[in-house]
Amino acid sequence: MIEVKNLVKQYGDHIAVDHLSFKVEKGQIYGFLGPNGAGKSTTMNIMTGYLSATSGEVTINGFNIFEEPEEAKKCIGYLPEMPPLYMDMTPLEYLKFVAELKKIPKKDQVQMIADVMKLVKITEYSNRLIRNLSKGYRQRVGLAQAIIGYPEVIILDEPTVGLDPKQIIEIRDLIKELSKKHTVILSSHIMQEISAVCDYILIISHGKLVASDTPENLSKLMLGSNEIELTIRGDMDLIKGILSENSEITDLMVHYGTEEGCVQVEIKTPSDVDIREKIFYQMSEAKCPILMMKSANMSLEDIFLELTEDSVSIQKEEKDEQEDTLEAKKENGHDSNL
After folding, report:
1. For 195-219, what is each residue's pLDDT tens digit?
2. CA atoms within 13 A on the CB side of 24
3. Does the pLDDT value for residue 125 go beyond 90?
4. Number of Cβ atoms within 10 Å of the Cβ of 37
5. Which end of the chain is more exposed for a tag (fewer CB within 10 A), N or C?
6. Is residue 311 over pLDDT 70?
7. What was the pLDDT predicted at 280?
8. pLDDT at 222
9. Is beta strand 29-33 parallel, antiparallel or unpaired with respect to 14-24?
10. Is residue 191 very low, low, confident or very high in pLDDT (cuts 50, 70, 90)?
11. 106-119 vs 91-101: helix axis angle to the nearest 10?
12. Is pLDDT of 312 > 60?
């Protein structure tokens, strides 16, 4: 659906996007993550045709955004962080205006607008002035304008910023609903939001792609193995002996649990090995019931910090260097304001 090849955006000596390449498949929700200044918004603005690129290619549903911008933009619905709303219009007037801009045939406009308002649940507010709507409903109007025309791709930049918990849940549910008919790209600083909504995650740092996979696979890759935690009722020596016979297990820790008669077990296996079913049957045959079994994965926050830690430290070093240079100038009698 979207292909980005060797994308570069340079401002003077600063490279905001550095030979970035990735693909977006149809019918998925993609999370776009990165620290401040990593190049997320710049990349999204290039993908939507708001910015030009220094070099590289972006194709949307087969159309090059630089060479065929009108055809490419027909495939995109975009909600910026600050929705482009006209406060003196009603949602109905505004969506009619958007439909005209998107060159929706007049015979299709009435039904399409009605359907979109129903989807984002603003029908009962269709004739109120947008300025009198709450932040959450203004965000819904912004989503509605992105959906008008039923584009194949919907790009959302921080869609839940400034919303209360109830509104956040409602917008997340709406995004999941949209993914049934659209490909969705979602930029957010809220890790919980990305974990709850996205099928696939793209993490960029210093304008480069540092990770691209499902949340589950990212966790496995960062750990380098599968980790399983179990609570098993039974004799410790018996349980340890049975598990020790499994050649797939690379690391095994067994100790008494807090619950009487139970044993806590921690197992590591190679990332491409799933031993859970085998252990289930082994413990069943030994009449040692498994009371709890769970995968011990890294959280998305841990993965993000691990992958972007270098970015944060480099930014700190650059800041320290600037402060040292300024201090040296002052000591040498130079006024930094001259």
Report:
1. 788 888 888 888 888 888 887 777 6
2. 29
3. yes
4. 15
5. C
6. no
7. 95
8. 60
9. unpaired
10. confident
11. 130
12. no
Tokens 């070099």, residue?
55
User: Strand ranges (DSSP E) for 80-207?
Assistant: 153-157, 183-187, 200-205
Q: pLDDT tens across 35-52, in order?
A: 777 888 889 889 988 889
The arrangement of strands across the sheet holding 251-256 comes to 251-256, 262-270, 225-233, 290-295
pLDDT of residue 84: 86
Report the distance separating Cα 279 and Cα 243, nearest Å: 8
Which residue bears the tokens 């045959």? Answer: 285
Q: What pTM value is reported for the model?
A: 0.69
Gyration radius from the chain CA atoms? 26
Amino acid at 173: D
CA 181 to chain centre: 19
- Rounded distance between C-alpha atoms, residue 209 and residue 38, angstroms: 10
What is the arrangement of strands in the sheet containing 55-60, beginning at the earlier edge strand?
14-24, 2-11, 55-60, 63-64
3-state secondary structure (DSSP) of residue 106: helix
Residue labelled with tokens 């290039």: 46
Higher pLDDT, 322 or 66: 66
- 119, 171 contact by CB (below 8 A): no
**Interior/surface letters 63-81, b for 16+ CB within 10 angstroms, e for the rest:** bebeeeeeebbbbbbbbbe
Cα(233)–Cα(260) distance, rounded to whole angstroms? Answer: 9
- Alpha carbon distances (Å) from 199 to 69, 153, 184, 196, 290: 28, 15, 10, 9, 30
